[in-house]
Structures are given as structure tokens and as C-alpha cells.
């Protein structure tokens, strides 16, 4: 019997489903995010059984005190950077979404884990590459795990059947956009399919207590709806990002039910796979022999970890009428705000200058503590006076030009001290009650951008 075609409308932002078209999503309020999809039920669909058959027993409610507290046994990976973002390893039965732009290295990262994680059985399901292609890549990286099984399949029922025979300790799905559930009629990659297949994979993880990694593609502007919709279904969302022209890749925790959600791991893409960068500061600080103007080092914090990052600025007289402002790795609106503060509160005439700002290494920084380094770099380039390379900065800048305190200043100072910096500029509000006795580094409290300029350039 032919299925009767029916359309529903989805919001590509939040996945809200509606029987009629909408301009503004009634659930999340986003505009122009409506997408029509056909949801004709598949030939295998039955009213009472909308999804793959698990043969599960009926569930029973249990009093909370009777539930045994077994300490969660995490699967610890051979990568400290990966363990860090997962909050100390993989929780059994969890579903982890790894999102990122195509070509950033998602398949490489998970394949690498699959073939290097000794004594764990892994089922790597790929709907994107053939077994030979995967083998070629694996050979390049180096295979250390004989119990890694490669399956090229996109049908979720077939995947479940293979899963039951292989009985892996971890399953990887590359990618969620290629999966097709026989119980839904839309094509692979459609919202209906992505929601259904992700929910099915999540159920496999929960039913068999086996962690499942799902790879999800997102485009530069984040328009492909998949991963956004998926965020609600999975336990953990990781994002793999970086500038393709640089080797560095950042793995960020976006959501984590089992650990902190602002962690970050750093990798470097090499010819033989991804290498962990356990000491990012040494790499993110560019090596230079002579001191150049326009460079200032910020003591930033990403998740639990302190990192020293170089900010580079170039200030020059505008060649054309309207001065240009450009920022890489830093919010351009924040740069404009900081320039306005310098103009209004410290009397620097920058409105007729071109200002370029760059965060070294092609990484993006959200930590507000980078503000003072940005200001210092701009002032240094403007005056063409280099800042000594053993100086570092950690403070936020407010609209009235005041230098504001930032969180966990001790961690930042300790990292700068460890790396041999000799002077760190911080807010005077952070300086109160700070114990600087055991430090080699000199801590300089600053109250305003004006004070900073005087402190640096007299
Ligand atoms: P890939 O993992 O296929 O990206 P994704 O799954 O996110 O689409 O990685 C693609 C890029 O990584 C590709 O341009 C080649 C590069 N690469 C290396 O530089 N070294 C390697 O060892 C591997 C396996 C890939
Ligand atoms: Mg891939």
C-alpha cells in the first residue's frame, strides 16, 4: 500500500515541528528558519512501533534510594586533550556529538582514537568513505588496535544488527547526515532523518551501555540544521574548529552532561594524523629574535587551563577616507569598543587610523581578559614602541576606561611565571589580597587605560 504523502514544517534552529508554514518560529523566535519536509511514513512503519525494534523489556520505576551508586567507570583515552574535554574520559552509555566543518579533521580524530585505543573493541561505521579509503588513512596514522572493525553502512537497522554481533565497547558513526532509518521516508540528511537516526543511535548507547560517537557536519555559518537539533538528543556536544590554513585544531565542549562544559583541547594536524598540543603557550607564542612593536601577550584562560596567547596589532594612517578595522580571532565589535575607549578616555586619536588585529595561531578567544593585551598591542603599534617580550597582560577593559578584575587571576599569574615572564599587568582590583610572595614574576596593578599607557610608554 502506498504511503500517503504529508508535509510538516521544521525550524532549522531548534527543530520545532509545525503543521503549517511560519515566518517566525513559535518556539524559539528565529526568523526565516522554516523548512518543509515530507514525512510520509515508510513501508516498515507501524502505528504502534515507530522505531527500530529492540525487543526490550518493560521498564519499571525504582525508588531512588534503591538505585545502587556504582562509581562511574569512564573509558580513559590515550589523549589527555580528549579526556579533558570529555571531563575525564568517556562515560559508558553516553552519546557524544562531534560537530565541525567538513575537512576540519573529525573523521581523522575518531579514527585515530579507534585504531590507537588498545584493548577496546571499536565499531567504526562510515557512510562517507569506503573501507579501502579508511584503511589507507589508518595506515598513515598507524594501527595499534586489532579490535577495530570498519563497517560501511547507512541503514540504522543494519547497523544495529551488526552492533549486536560485533559487541563493541565503543561505536563511531561517521556521519549522522548519511544515516537512514527504514522507518522514516525522507532522504538521508533531512531533518526528519537526522532526528530519528540520532535518537535511534542514542537509544543503542543507552540500551547496551556502550558509548556512541556521532560525527555531524556543520557549515561555516552553522546553517545546516542537523547538529543544532541534535544537541538536545545527545549527552555531550563537542566542536572541532580551527582555521584550515593553520595546523591547529581546537576541540571545545559545548555541552556536557557529565563534566564541565567550557573545556578545550588543542591538536595539531600533521601528515600522520593529529598530534596533541599539551603545552599550547609555547606554540602560540611566536618565536622572534628582535622586539617588534604591536605585539602583546595575554594570559588567558580557556576552561580550566591558562594559556598565553599573542595578540598582534597594526595601526597605520588610513590610506582612504574611511579607516579600516579588521580582527581575526577576536570580536570586531569589541575591538571597536576598545578603540573608542582609547579615544575617549585616554585621548589617543585613532579614528583616522586603520587598525588590524590578529590573534596568533588562528585561534578564537572569548576570554575578556585579553582586552588589556589588545589595548597594549594597539598602543604599541601606534607609538611604534615595542613592548618587552617578557611582559604579559590579564584584565578586562570597561567602557569608562577602567581596568577590571578577571576570574582566577592566580592561575594566570602562575602560568606566566612558569613560562618565565617577568612582569604581568593586572587590574588593581585583582591585586588586593593577592599573595605574590613566592613568585618570581612582578605583578603590576593598573587602574585605567591611561595608567597602562603611562606605565608602558611613560
Ligand atoms: P577529515 O578527518 O577527513 O575531515 P572531516 O571528517 O572533518 O571532514 O580530515 C580532512 C583533512 O585532514 C584533509 O584535508 C587531509 C588532512 N589530513 C592530514 O593532514 N593528515 C592526516 O594524517 C590525515 C588523515 C588527514
Ligand atoms: Mg569525515
Description of the molecule:
- The protein is α/β, with parallel strands linked by helices.
- It has three domains: 44 residues; 202 residues, Rossmann fold (3-Layer(aba) Sandwich); 175 residues, Ribosomal Protein S5, domain 2.
- The protein has twelve helices and 21 strands.
- The strands form five sheets. The chain has a nine-stranded mixed sheet with strand order 6-5-7-8-4-9-10-11-12, with helices on both faces. A four-stranded mixed sheet has the order 13-14-16-15. A three-stranded antiparallel sheet has the order 2-1-3, with no helix packed on it.
- A hairpin with a 7-residue loop joins strand 10 and strand 11.
- It is globular.
- Bound molecules: thymidine-5'-diphosphate (TYD) and magnesium ion.
- The site of magnesium ion (MG) has 4 residues, from helix 2.
Low-confidence stretches: 45-49
Number of DSSP E strands: 21
- Note the main sheet: 9 strands, mixed
The domain count comes to: 3
By CATH, the superfamily of the largest domain comes out as P-loop containing nucleotide triphosphate hydrolases
What's the tally of helices? 12
Residue share in helix: 25-40%
Distance between the ends: 85 Å
> Which molecules are bound in this entry?
thymidine-5'-diphosphate, magnesium ion
- Second-tier CATH architecture of the largest domain: 3-Layer(aba) Sandwich
Amino acid at each position: 500500500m502506498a504511503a500517503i504523502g504529508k508535509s510538516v514544517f521544521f525550524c532549522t534552529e531548534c527543530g520545532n515541528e509545525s503543521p503549517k508554514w511560519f515566518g517566525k518560529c513559535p518556539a524559539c523566535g528565529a526568523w526565516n528558519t522554516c523548512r518543509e519536509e515530507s514525512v510520509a511514513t515508510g513501508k516498515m512503519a507501524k502505528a504502534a512501533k515507530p522505531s527500530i525494534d529492540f525487543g526490550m523489556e518493560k521498564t519499571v520505576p525504582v525508588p531512588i534510594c534503591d538505585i545502587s551508586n556504582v562509581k562511574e567507570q569512564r573509558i580513559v583515552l590515550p589523549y589527555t586533550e580528549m579526556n579533558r574535554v570529555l571531563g575525564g574520559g568517556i562515560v559508558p552509555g553516553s552519546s557524544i556529538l562531534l560537530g565541525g566543518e567538513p575537512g576540519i579533521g573529525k573523521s581523522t580524530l575518531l579514527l585515530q582514537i579507534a585504531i590507537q585505543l588498545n584493548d577496546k573493541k571499536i565499531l567504526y561505521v562510515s557512510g562517507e568513505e569506503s573501507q579501502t579509503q579508511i584503511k589507507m588513512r589508518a595506515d598513515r596514522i598507524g594501527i595499534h588496535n586489532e579490535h577495530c572493525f570498519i563497517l560501511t553502512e547507512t541503514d540504522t537497522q543494519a547497523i544495529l544488527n551488526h552492533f549486536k554481533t560485533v559487541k563493541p565497547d565503543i561505536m563511531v558513526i561517521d556521519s549522522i547526515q548519511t544515516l537512514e532509518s527504514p522507518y522514516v521516508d525522507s532522504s538521508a540528511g533531512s531533518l526528519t532523518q537526522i532526528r530519528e537516526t540520532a535518537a535511534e543511535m542514542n537509544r543503542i548507547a543507552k540500551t547496551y551501555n556502550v558509548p556512541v560517537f556521532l560525527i555531524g557536519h556543520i557549515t561555516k555559518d552553522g546553517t545546516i540544521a542537523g547538529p543544532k537539533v541534535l544537541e538536545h538528543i545527545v549527552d555531550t556536544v563537542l566542536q572541532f574548529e580551527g582555521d584550515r590554513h593553520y595546523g591547529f585544531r581546537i576541540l571545545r565542549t559545548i555541552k556536557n552532561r557529565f563534566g564541565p562544559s567550557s573545556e578545550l583541547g588543542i591538536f595539531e594536524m600533521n601528515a600522520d594524523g593529529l598530534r596533541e598540543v599539551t603545552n599550547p603557550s609555547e606554540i602560540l607564542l611566536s618565536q622572534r629574535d628582535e622586539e617588534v612593536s604591536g605585539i602583546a601577550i595575554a594570559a588567558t584562560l580557556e576552561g580550566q587551563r591558562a594559556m598565553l596567547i599573542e595578540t598582534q596589532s597594526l595601526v597605520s594612517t588610513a590610506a582612504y577616507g574611511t579607516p579600516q578595522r579588521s580582527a581575526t580571532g577576536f570580536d570586531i565589535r569589541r575591538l571597536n569598543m576598545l578603540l573608542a575607549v582609547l579615544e575617549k578616555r585616554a585621548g589617543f586619536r585613532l579614528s583616522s587610523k586603520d587598525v588590524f588585529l590578529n590573534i596568533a595561531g588562528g585561534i578564537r578567544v572569548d576570554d575578556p581578559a585579553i582586552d588589556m593585551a589588545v589595548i597594549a598591542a594597539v598602543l604599541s603599534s601606534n607609538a611604534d614602541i615595542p613592548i618587552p617580550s617578557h611582559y604579559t597582560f590579564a584584565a578586562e577593559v570597561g567602557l569608562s576606561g577602567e581596568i577590571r578584575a578577571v576570574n582566577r587571576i592566580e592561575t594566570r599569574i602562575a602560568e606566566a611565571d612558569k613560562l618565565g615572564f617577568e612582569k604581568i599587568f593586572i587590574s588593581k582590583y585583582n591585586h588586593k589580597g593577592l599573595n605574590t610572595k613566592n613568585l618570581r614574576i612582578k605583578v603590576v596593578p593598573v587602574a585605567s587605560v591611561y595608567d597602562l599607557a603611562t606605565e608602558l610608554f611613560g
